[in-house]
Design a protein that fits this description.
By secondary structure, this protein is of the alpha+beta class. It has a single domain (5-134), classed as HIT-like (HIT family, subunit A), CATH 3.30.428.10. It is built from three helices and five strands. The chain has helices at residues 5-11, 55-76, 123-134, and strands at residues 18-21, 25-29, 39-43, 80-84, 100-105. The chain has a five-stranded antiparallel β-sheet with strand order 1-2-3-5-4, with helices on one face. It is globular and about 45 Å long.
C-alpha cells in the first residue's frame, strides 16, 4: 500500500485534531470540512478500500462510528448527518486508506447528493450471485 496522508497522521509525522483513538481506530477533524464538525474515522490497519479491510478492523470501526457520530452531533448542535465511505477512484476516493466521513448537516451545509437511480432488473438473479459470493 502506498504511503498516504492518513498513514503519516498515524505515524505522527503529520498532526491532526484527534477526537477519538483506541488501539485499532483513529478519528480526527477533516482539515477541509464540508461542514463544522466534519470528522474522519480511520482504521489503523492499512487497507486501501473497505473490501480489503480485515473483519476485525471493520468491526472496530463499526463499534465506534455511532459513538463518534453522537459526539459530533452533540458538539455541533446538528440533528442530521451523513456517513460517507468511498472505495476507488471512480467512487471519488481521494485518499487510498479506508476512511469514513461523519458530516454534520447544519443549515443545509454539508454533503450534497443527487441520486441517479435505475429500475432494478433481474433482482433475484443478482441477489443469488451475491449470496453465492458470500459462501
Amino acid at each position: 500500500m502506498a504511503e498516504t496522508v492518513f498513514g503519516k497522521i498515524l505515524a505522527g509525522t503529520i498532526p491532526c485534531h484527534r477526537v477519538y483513538e483506541d488501539d485499532q481506530v483513529l478519528a480526527f477533524l477533516d482539515v477541509g470540512p464540508l461542514s463544522k464538525g466534519h470528522t474522519l474515522v480511520i482504521p489503523k490497519e492499512p487497507a486501501e478500500t473497505l473490501d480489503k479491510l480485515s473483519d476485525d478492523a471493520a468491526a472496530a470501526v463499526g463499534r465506534v462510528l455511532p459513538r463518534i457520530a453522537r459526539a459530533v452531533l452533540a458538539a455541533t448542535g446538528a440533528t442530521s448527518f451523513n456517513v460517507l465511505q468511498n472505495n476507488g477512484a471512480a467512487a471519488h476516493q481521494s485518499v487510498f486508506h479506508v476512511h469514513f466521513h461523519i458530516i454534520p448537516r447544519v443549515d443545509d451545509k454539508g454533503l450534497e447528493l443527487e441520486w441517479d437511480t435505475e429500475k432494478l432488473a433481474d433482482g433475484e438473479a443478482l441477489a443469488a450471485k451475491i449470496r453465492a459470493a458470500l459462501s
